[in-house]
# Entry
Amino acid sequence: MILLRVLVGLSGAVLLLGTVLSALRTVVLPRDEPVRLTSALFRMTRAVFDVLLRTQGTYAGRDRLMAHYAPVTLLLLPFAWLGFTWIGFGAIYWAIEGAGVFDALVTSGSSLMTLGFERPDGFLPTLITFVESALSMSVLALLLVTYLPSLYAAFAEREQQVTLFEVSGGTPPSAVQMMIRYHRIRGFTETEQVWSEWERWFARVAESHTALPALVHFRSQDPEQSWVTSAGAVLDAAAMVAAVIDLAEVGLEERNVVMDDDQVVRMPAAEICLRAGYLALRRIAARHDLPVDRDPGPDDPISVSRAEFDEACEEMREAGVPLRADIDRAWRDWSGWRVNYDAALIELANLTVAPPARWISDRTPTSPDAADRPRR
# Structure
C-alpha cells in the first residue's frame, strides 16, 4: 500500500510538472517549441468543429463556425490546465494524508479555487495547499491574462497589412489584379517599397505564428479576407514581377534593379520578399505538423497548371501589362518560385478553411471544384 501511495504521489507530481511546463511554454517561452497538451487540445476541438463543418453547406456558414474555433479552444485551455492541476495535487494529497480519493480531490479543489472550506491537517499538507493556491492564481490564471493581450496585439498587427492589401490586390486577393492595377496607375516603379513592407510582414508573422500558434486560426473581420490568401496573392504577385513582367518596359531599367546574364531586368526587392514569404509559410506549416518539402526541386509539380498560368498572362496582356516575350521561360521561372511555397500555402489554406481565392484556397481538398481540377 505504501508503494502504491508513493507511485501515485510521484505520478501526481509529474502531472503537475508537465502542466506547469505546458503553461510556461504556451504563454511565456518566446520561441517555437511544440507543447503536447496545447496541441492535443486544439486537435480534439478541431475534430468536433470538423464534424460541425459538414453541416454547413455554404462558405458563409463555415466561416461563422470557424471564427469560434480558436476562441473556444483558448477558453478551454485554462480549464485543462486547472483540471490537470486539480488531479495532480489530489494524487499528492491522497499519497500524503492516506485519506480517501474523494476527500483528496475535495481538498485539492478547495485549495485550487482558493475556497478554503477544506483544510488538511499537518504542516506538509497545509504547505501544499498554499503552493496549489499560489500556483492556480499567480501562474495559471495570471499567465493567461498576459497571454491574450499579446495574442491580440499580434493579430491586430497582422490584420492591418491584410486590410491594406485589399486596395491593390482586391477581394478576394489576386496577384493578377494586383499587376493590372499597378500597371493602370503606372505604379510598378513604386513596388519596391511594397515588397519591402511585405518582407517585414512575413518576418513578423513567422515569429508570432510559431510562438503563438493559435494565431493561425484567428480569422479576419471581413469573411472574404484571410492572412493566408493575402500572403499567397502577394507571393504570386512577387513571382510575377520576378519572372513574368517585362520590367524594362515599365521604366525600371533606371531604378534600383539589376540585369541578369540574359540582359533581363530584375527587381531584387521582389525576390527577397519571395524568400521571406516561403520561409515564413514553411515554418508556420511545420509548426502545425503539415506535410511540407523543405527543399523542393524547381521542376517539382505545383497546384497551378500551365493552362491556368497562360490564362492569367492573357488577362494581363489584354489589360496592357507588358510581359516577357518568352512565355515558356516565364512559366518555368514562375513555377520555380511557386514550388517553394505551394505546398505550405495550400496546406495552411486547408487548415484555416480560408475563403475562396484564386490559386490558393480553390486548391484545397474541401473546395467545390477540387475533384475536377487538373494538377501537374
In short: The mean pLDDT is 84. The first strand starts at residue 258 and ends at 259.
